[in-house]
Amino acid sequence: MRIPSSFIILAVLIAGIFCEESTTNPSTTLPTDATTLSTESSTSQETTTARVTTSEPETTTAQTTIAPTTTLSPTTTTIGTTSTKAPTTTTTTTTTKTTTTTPAPVTSTKSPEPPVPDVGSWNVTDDNVTCIRADLRIRFDVYLNDKTEYIVLSPNASSSGDCSNVTQVLEIHESDYSLVLYFGKDATSTYVKNITFSYTMPDNSGFVYNDTKLFPVKIGNSYLCSTTSNVILRNVTMEVYHIRIQSFGTSENKDFGTAEECEADNKVNDIVPIAVGIALLALVVVVLIAYFVGRRRSRQKGYQSV
């Protein structure tokens, strides 16, 4: 059988075209039960999967169309170096200078004890009659410029006076002070009616007095007080530690008359008899208790013998 030449040429052309297409786009003919066709491009840019499902035996040609090739430009990652300037921290150190003040030791200077006076005796005599007798123990507290100065009545101080029938005077003095007692009387008693005191000190001097009626006693008797008492003379306090005085004496009085004690001394003296009375009362109670206890025991012995 002779094949026409035109048919052969046509077949060659078709085969050439077919070969050219096969070279460019490989084709895969899937069998009837083929499910998936996977074609991978040589440039690894895109993969197209065709899945053909047939129910009858037939030949399916899956043609893969080559997508335009996209050339990926290399990804350039620029790692920027960020220089973060650390904040400048300025630390200000404040130095507090602590000044410790050590208090100076307190030196307690004990003020000297006030002087204690001694008993002195003075009298005033006129025409062999001693009209005034005085035993005194006195200290004067003089308050000047927020401080206290002391003047003690010296037992060796000089004395002078007056034995008048109305007012009698006893003056006791030394170079820096003078004490004057003025005595008066009425129908039944004698007393001190005025006291004056003058003093001279290096930085001050003064004159003070008290005209209160003091130390009253019956005429012919003496005033006695051994309890300390104070007589105020303005800015001076006369502290009387002991006093026994008598004025308007007569020729019959060779010594102090009967002593009339001050109330303060009487209160002290009253303590003694009260204490003795309490002791005697307690003794009586003890004796009575002993008597009744002994009597009761004797009765009990009598009952037991019966």
UniProtKB/TrEMBL annotation:
The chain crosses the membrane at residues 271-293. GO terms for cellular component: late endosome membrane; lysosomal membrane; plasma membrane. Residues 272-304 form the Lysosome-associated membrane glycoprotein 2-like transmembrane domain. Residues 22-122 are annotated as: Disordered. Residues 22-111 have a biased composition (Low complexity). Residues 117-249 form the Lysosome-associated membrane glycoprotein 2-like luminal domain. The keyword Membrane applies. Disulfide bonds join 225-262. The keyword Membrane applies. Residues 1-19 form the signal peptide. GO terms for biological process: establishment of protein localization to organelle. It is found in: Cell projection, Dendrite; Cell projection, Growth cone membrane; Cytoplasmic vesicle, Secretory vesicle, Synaptic vesicle membrane; Early endosome membrane. It is a single-pass type I membrane protein. Keywords: Cell projection, Cytoplasmic vesicle, Disulfide bond, Endosome, Glycoprotein, Membrane, Signal, Synapse, Transmembrane, Transmembrane helix. Plays a role in short-term synaptic plasticity in a subset of GABAergic neurons in the brain. Belongs to the LAMP family. This is Lysosome-associated membrane glycoprotein 5.
